[in-house]
Amino acid sequence: MSKAVGIIPARWSSSRFPGKPLHLIAGIPLLRHVWEHCRRAEKLDSVIIATDDMRIADAAFEWGAEVALTSPHHQSGTDRIAEVARKAKQFASIINIQGDEPLVDPALIDKLVERLRSDRKIGIVTAAHPFENAAEASSPHQVKVIVDLRGNALYFSRYAIPFPRDRSAPIRYLRHQGIYGFRRQTLLQFVKWKPTPLERAESLEQLRALENGVKVHVLVTKHGSPGVDTPREAIALEQNLARAGIVAASLREASASPIERRLQTFGSKAKRRPSR
């Protein structure tokens, strides 16, 4: 079975939220929330944090994370994970996980790996989900995707697509979630290509793959996971977690030692084991 790695690109500099990876949410750094969720994915053989900042690296080392120090000159997270993948030749599948989605679903990560393994014609696999409020599809900050009957991406856009010419026909707008599974060779080829016309027009990197003929499969899920782009969104997320009663559990798990976590996992499995 081919090996899979989850890589979380993380940078300190951000025009809207400097130092975002280490911003505390429920007393835990944002990036650590992401890392903890990734570690629950059963199909990943390794989880690596890729960064060019020693503040992030030192903090991640403290958690026990594997860290890859990368060049400070990368233009995107994809370029950053490609540097790691280029050296980590043992991994056939590379999952690019956004460092600002603290509630990323481990089951979704597993599905991305499984899809790459089940269809070798797929070069990239990503995810999307229906908008809960269709009015939000009009925002250029929310990326939309349309797919063919086999679930392959036809186009990504900041515009609300498809256009409802017949207002009586039901329209399902799909919000693209910024998580990607790459076949290793596809990733290394992707970062060699120059930005393409549609990519520059929409400022959407994934269009480079479509314009170069890469098959991009889209897993459509019921729900997505919230991202954190600004301090205000971080506060809102923490309040939502508190209302949902998730904060206490996250704090207990993050503060537990590796041995305690293994014992917790063993205990939960034992409870599920049927009696004979």
Describe this structure in words.
There is one protein chain. With 276 residues, the protein is an alpha/beta fold. The chain has a domain at 122-224: Spore Coat Polysaccharide Biosynthesis Protein SpsA, Chain A (Alpha-Beta Complex). It has ten helices and eleven strands. The chain has helices spanning 30-38, 54-63, 77-87, 106-118, 184-190, 197-202, 207-211, 231-244, 247-255, 258-272, and strands at residues 3-10, 24-25, 28-29, 46-51, 66-69, 91-96, 124-130, 144-147, 153-157, 174-183, 216-220. Strands 1, 4, 5, 6, 7, 8, 9, 10 and 11 form a nine-stranded mixed β-sheet that branches. Helix 2 (54-63) links the parallel strand 4 (46-51) and strand 5. The chain is globular and about 55 Å long. The protein starts with a strand and ends with a helix. 33% of the residues are buried.
